[in-house]
Amino acid sequence: MNTFIYALGAITTVALPMRAWLEDRQNPVRQAFLWLGINLAFTYIAFAAYLASALSVLRLSCGIGAAFLPLTFYTFFTRFFRVKSDFDQAVLSGLRFLAPVVAILYVLGETTVFSSTPRASTGSVLLALFAFGGIALSLARLTQLYFISEQRVDRIRMHYLLALMGAALMFSTAESLARAWVSHPPAGSLDILTGPVVLQGAVPPVGVLFTGLLFYFLYQILVLSRLLDLHEIASRLITLGICGAVLVTMEVAVVVWNDTLSHSTAHGTFLIFLAGLLFLVIYDPLRRQVEHRTHQWFNRRGRILDLTLGEIESNLSSSVDMDTLVEGLLSPLAASGRAPYSALYLWDDIEQRYQIMGFRGKVSGSPMPTVPSELLEPFRDKVLPTLVYQDLSRRSEREGDSTTTHSIRLLIQLHADLLIPIHAGTALLGWICLEDEPWSDGFSQEEINKLVKIVERVAVILDNIQGLQHIQEQRRLAALGTMSAGLAQEIRSPLAGIKEAAQELLASTPQEPSSGTCGADGSSPGLEPAVTKRNSQPPATRPHLHGNDSRQTRNHLELIVDETERLDNIVNQFLTYAKPYRPRLVTCRIPLIIRRARMHLAHHGLPPAVRLREDIRSELPDLRADEDGLEQVLVNLLDNAVEELAPTGGTITVAARQDWWNIRNQRIPVVIIQVHDTGRGIPREDQDKLFIPFFSTRNRGTGLGLPVCRRIVEAHKGEINVHSEAGKGTRFIVTLPLSV
User: Fold this and answer.
1) Pick from 187, 196, 203, 188: which is nearest to 1 by CA?
2) CA 48, CA 36: separation in Å to the nearest integer?
């Protein structure tokens, strides 16, 4: 059994370092870990073979391996904790010289001077002092680093390593002292069952078990770089150890009682069986209680997070708007001290980008208000996963692929160590990002799983909030539309009376040929006055004509008629904007709609200096849309372009093509229509106001044409944008999804 334990220890001490090294062969810490594992595995496997055969050559091989243990231990810990002091370099230089010298002297002494010594020889004692003393030196240096370290993470790591390494050294030393009293029997004098027990000595091989645990913890720290999982592992190991100790105590008590009361084997076996049954009865509640206590002791931060998540769940149940959602989600995280900075990003349908909805805590610099599209480009056709900075850093060191690099860049820009996406199906609604404490060693998988469940609830609440906001907006717009329609009708009635009276007076007033004024032509309603009088002079700059009373009266009457027609046009557009718009969807062709809009423009007159050209792809697919609505959008955009180019001339280009639209990480086929003019351009400060009702950059503009266009386009689930540069013209871009 002892042979098997040492062989298992050898496999453990070489397999774990080998696995860590294969993941990153250039890492000097993992290289040192591998050499330490090889050294210890060689020592253990030689000693295991010696226990099975009692061959002196195997005992010598074990001694050679032990002579190099101080060097490999000290090398590993100096690299692991990144210490490069002159003292450490001097110790390493001394060990590099002494290790082979001690090994050679030990072999020479055991084969010559001490070959006939029945028990532990002077050479063996000196070798043990060198090996255990060198390892103790590593332990002392680790203790010194523990007290001077300012990083809490390193201190916690050292705390574990000191405990395990100290236990392994203590039990291994006790085993060596016990073996010193055992004489070396000749080869073949012991069988395979009794030999390992006799040669091991009075102390069982407990040191190899602690050494295996030490290597397991070192492997976890190197590969996972996270202590929270180690807390969980330690908690379970302690639980198993306590339960095992209870079982052994019960069995020993039964054996002692059996020897006292009875010498019957059957009775003793029956009592041991009853003790085992009794342990199985109490095992489950005992395990749960011990595991709960140890888990609480090791994972105090986890308890804080559990309480915080409970508070968040309570807050989310009462979240009915975005403000309460942000407050209920982020404030508890900030107050817990578990996340010094947290932020919530969501998709904005109007701005067509992800922007921050709220944040808590302090961050170096300032939080990113909106996320550039290039940061999310690698996830355009994928589902954004949960991103953990430490995991990505390790993956980048091993693989270095572009997606990992982009993910790390995204987390750095967001000041996040953890990003949990908020999905609705395959659509990305946004995400919550958390920064970890500077002294912490990352979020455990258990913590991440709990946060993911919270975020899943946030996705449902966001859907409910958006539905509620949509209902409230519909009610507000319905009330506004009703009020606006009534107000418009009240305005139209007196306007009609004023216009009718002015026209009657104008008809009865004689017209003088020399007046030079524009006669009343009873222009048709709608868009025609805006087209035919595109270059007319504003009332404020119209010259005041002197002459007889009839001439002045006629001029004033013409002004009244013109302005009432303009007001009537404004009221008509306002009613169009205010009343509910429901597109009548039919299958239509984009080139045909563009052609009809051009015909409307030609009908009302195109200034000679303005040229109109088309750039339409012949392979455009059919579109489900409202033909009249899209025609109205194009007519308004073309009218605006003609109005801009009329004084100086220029070119208007109407282009249409099929493309793909990326929204919430989904690719949707769309048709893009562009109206581009070569005019003066729109000032940057005015571009964001173009779609606000009643805002206009022209003296006689109503400011309702573009808002009406946006309303029609958004009713088709599309979007309209403007790009303009001074001296390069203006481009309006209409994007319409093929499936509405």
Assistant:
1) 196
2) 18
Positive or negative: CA dihedral 603, 608, 610, 614? positive
Helix (H) / strand (E) element for 346: namely: strand 341-348
CA dist 119 and 180 (Å) reads 6
Q: Could you tell me if 680 and 727 are in contact, meaning their C-beta atoms sit under 8 angstroms apart?
A: yes
CA 387 to chain centre: 4
Q: What are phi and psi of 79, to 5 degrees?
A: -75, -35
Cα separation values, 682 from 237, 417, 612, 725, Å: 71, 42, 20, 7
Report the length, in residues, of the chain: 740
Q: Which amino acid type is present at position 401? A: D
pLDDT over 90 at 36, yes or no = yes
Closest CA to 116 of 189, 47, 184, 199: 184
| pLDDT tens column, 158-212 | 777 888 889 999 998 888 888 877 666 665 556 666 667 777 777 888 888 889 8
pLDDT at 717 over 90: no
Query: What's the pLDDT score for residue 103?
Result: 92
Residues sharing a CB contact under 8 Å with residue 617, sequence separation 6 or more, in sequence order: 656, 657, 658
Reference 429, options 364, 370, 344, 514; nearest CA is 344
d(CA 498, CA 666): 56
The letter for the amino acid at 603 is H
CA torsion sign for 332, 338, 343, 347 is negative
Judge whether 413 and 435 are in contact, CB under 8 Å.
no
Nearest to 486 by CA among 579, 553, 395, 613: 579
**676 and 730 Cβ atoms separated by less than 8 Å:** yes
pLDDT at residue 695 in the model? 72
Nearest to 198 by CA among 409, 2, 475: 2
CA dihedral sign of residues 270, 272, 278, 283:
negative
Give the up-direction half-sphere exposure of residue 277: CA atoms within 13 A in the CB hemisphere.
6
More confident residue, 205 or 270: 205
Query: Which tops the pLDDT comparison, 257 or 507?
Result: 507
Who's near 640: CB < 8 A, 6+ residues apart?
A: 705, 706
Q: Report pLDDT for 526.
A: 36
Dihedral class, residue 338 (left if φ above 0, else alpha if ψ from -120 to 50, else beta):
alpha
Structural tokens at position 145: 């680093």
The CA-CA-CA angle for residues 589, 593, 597, to 5°, reads 170
Average pLDDT over residues 703-728: 85
> What residues are paired with 730 via a beta bridge?
677, 724
pLDDT at 530 over 50: no
pTM of the model: 0.44
Judged against a pLDDT cut of 80, whether residue 490 lies above it is answered with no
Two structure tokens written together for 550 = 């009839």
671 touches 620 (CB < 8 A): yes
* Contact (Cβ atoms closer than 8 angstroms) between residue 136 and residue 129: no
Mean pLDDT of 215-227: 71
> Considering only CA atoms, which of 382, 356, 352, 373 is closest in space to residue 665?
382
625 residue type, one letter:
A
Report strand pairing: 650-663 vs 353-361. Answer: unpaired
Distance CA 444, CA 299 (A): 11
The Cα 214–Cα 9 span in angstroms is 11
Contact partners, residue 346, CB within 8 Å, separation at least 6: 354, 355, 357, 422, 429, 430, 462
At 537, the pLDDT band (50, 70, 90 cuts) reads very low
Q: Pick the closest to residue 565 from 511, 517, 518, 526 (CA basis).
A: 526
Q: Give the burial class of 443: count Cβ atoms within 10 A of its Cβ; 0-12 exposed, 13-18 middle, 19 or more buried.
A: buried
Q: Residues 67, 95: contact at Cβ < 8 Å? A: no
User: How do residues 670-692 score in pLDDT, each as one tens digit?
Assistant: 899 999 998 888 887 787 778 77
Beta strands in 8-158 (DSSP E): none
Contact 50, 58 (CB under 8 A): yes
